[in-house]
Amino acid sequence: MNLIEEFNAYRSEMNEKIMASDNKVIKRFFNLDTNTYAEGALDIKTKEMIGLACSMVLRCDDCIKYHLGKAHEAGLNKEQIFEVFSIATIIGGSIVIPHLRRAVEYWELLEQEGKSDV
């Protein structure tokens, strides 16, 4: 199992367990998150770029992977992703660089996976 499959499988498994708790507050929070990234006044690509930059600045590797995956699904290209990386690095400073390294690795995997699907 590669890094992308492993991340998605773990995330799905744990989200199912979390939702099975039937906690109203958690369910509402997850729903709010889902609705935030839906098409609206801003398109999905823009929202994913914002989510990615914020996740990098907040240094959440799981969030970074999630938003990279969604950005890839939405059709962002490498040049656009690296502009987001540059914004996040400027805002967050050098502490973002380790997350930038892992983000570049994950993006490369997404690109490779996309090429193998063709």
Unreliable runs: none
Percent in helix: over 70%
Main β-sheet description = none
Head-to-tail CA distance between termini: 20 Å
CATH architecture designation: Up-down Bundle
- Total individual domains: 1
CATH superfamily: AhpD-like
The computed structural class is mainly alpha
Approximately what portion of the residues adopt beta-strand conformation? under 5%
Which fold name corresponds to the CATH topology? AhpD-like
What would you call the shape?
A: globular
Which features would summarize this protein structure in a list?
118 residues; 81% helix
Quick summary of this structure?
By secondary structure, this protein is mainly alpha-helical. The chain contains six helices and no strands. Helix 3 packs parallel to helix 5 and helix 4 packs parallel to helix 6.
Describe this structure in words.
By secondary structure, the protein is an all-alpha fold. Helix content is 81%, strand content 0%. The chain has a single domain (3-116), classed as AhpD-like (Up-down Bundle). It has helices at 3-20, 24-36, 44-58, 61-74, 78-92, 97-116. The two termini are 20 Å apart. The mean pLDDT is 96.
